Amino acid sequence: MPGKGLALESVDISALPHARPHHYGRWFGATLLVVALGYIVWAFAVGNIDWATVGDYIFHPRVLHGVAMTILLSVISMALGVLIGTATAIGRTSHNPVISMAAAFYTWLFRGAPILLQLLIWYNLALIFPVIGIPGLWQAPTVTVMTPFVAALIAFSLHEGAYTSEVIRSGLLSIDAGQHEAAKSIGMGYALTFRRIVLPQALRVVIPPLGNEFIGLLKMSALASVVGFLELTGTAQDIYYVNTKIMEMLFVATIWYLVIVSFFSILQMWIEGRVSRGFVNGGKH
C-alpha cells in the first residue's frame, strides 16, 4: 500500500501531542514519606523532651571539648592507620615471602579481633606488663603511659591500618603491570615509579573507600568512652550522669555527630574531585 506509506512518512511527529506518564507510584511513595516524617516530627514535638536543655548544651564548653577530642582522635588514628596500611599493602605485594606473610598475619589479626576488645586489651595492658619500655634505655609504669587517649589511639590506628591496607592494596593492584614495565624501561626506579606513576592513579581508586573508612572511624570513636576517654559520647554521658537529662544529652551528641560527618563528607567529595582531574570517568568535563 504505497499511498498509506507516503501518508505515514509525511506526518510531522513533533506536532503530535505528548502523552506524559502518570507516576502514581512516585506520588504514593512521596505521600507516605511526608506523612511518616510529619508523624516523627510531631512525636518529638509532643514527647517528654526538654528542648531548652538541648539548646543550653549544644555549645557548652565541655561538649565542644568533646567534639574537638573526637575529631583529634579520629584524624590522628586515620593518619597513622593510612601509614600503617600503606606499609602493609606494600608488604602484601612484596616478593619476599616473610614480609608478605607478616603483613597478611597483621591484617588477619587486627581485622578479626573486635575493636572493643582491642580497646580493653590495650587499656588493661598493665595487668600483664607492669613496666613498659626498652630495658637499659627507657622504662615507665604502664599505667602512666597507657592513658585512655593512648589506648584508644593505638587500638584505632592498628584497627584502621588493617582495613586500609586492603583498600590501598586494591588501589595498587588496579594499576596495569604494563605501566610498571614501561617505567622500568625508561630507567625509572621503584620509588620514582611509585611516586610518579602508581600513586597518582591509585589515589583516585582509594580515596572514596578511605573516606568511607574515616566516616566510620568518626562514629566508632564513641567506643573510646568505654575506657574513660571523654570524647563526644563520653562527655555527653558524663553530663547526663549529673543533670539526669539522658535523652537531651544524647540528642546533643547526635546533632554534633551529624554536623561532623556532614563536614567531612563534603571535604571527601572535594578531595575526590581534585584527585580525579584529568580522568574521563572521574573528572568533570
Euclidean distance between termini CA atoms: 50 Å
CATH superfamily: MetI-like
Q: Which structural category fits the helices and strands?
A: mainly alpha
The CATH architecture classification is Orthogonal Bundle
Task: Indicate the low-confidence ranges by residue numbers.
Answer: none
Overall strand count: 2
CATH third-tier fold name: MetI-like fold
CATH class: Mainly Alpha
Domain module count: 1
Q: Report the β-strand fraction as a percent range.
A: under 5%
The coarse silhouette is: flat
Helix content: over 70%
H-E string:
HHHHHHEEHHHHHH
Describe the fold and architecture:
It is a single chain. The protein has 285 residues and is mainly α. The protein has one domain (50-275): MetI-like fold. It is built from twelve helices and two strands. It has helices spanning 2-9, 24-46, 51-57, 61-92, 97-112, 115-123, 142-145, 148-173, 177-185, 190-220, 232-243, 246-275; strands spanning 131-134, 138-141. A two-stranded antiparallel sheet has the order 1-2. Helix 9 (177-185) packs antiparallel against helix 10. The longest helix is centred in the N-terminal third of the chain and has 32 residues, at 61-92.
Considering the chains and any ligands shown, give keywords for the structure.
MetI-like fold; 3% strand; single chain; 73% helix; mainly alpha; 285 residues; two-stranded antiparallel sheet
Summary?
This protein has 285 residues and is mainly α. It is built from 12 helices and 2 strands, in the order ααααααββαααααα.
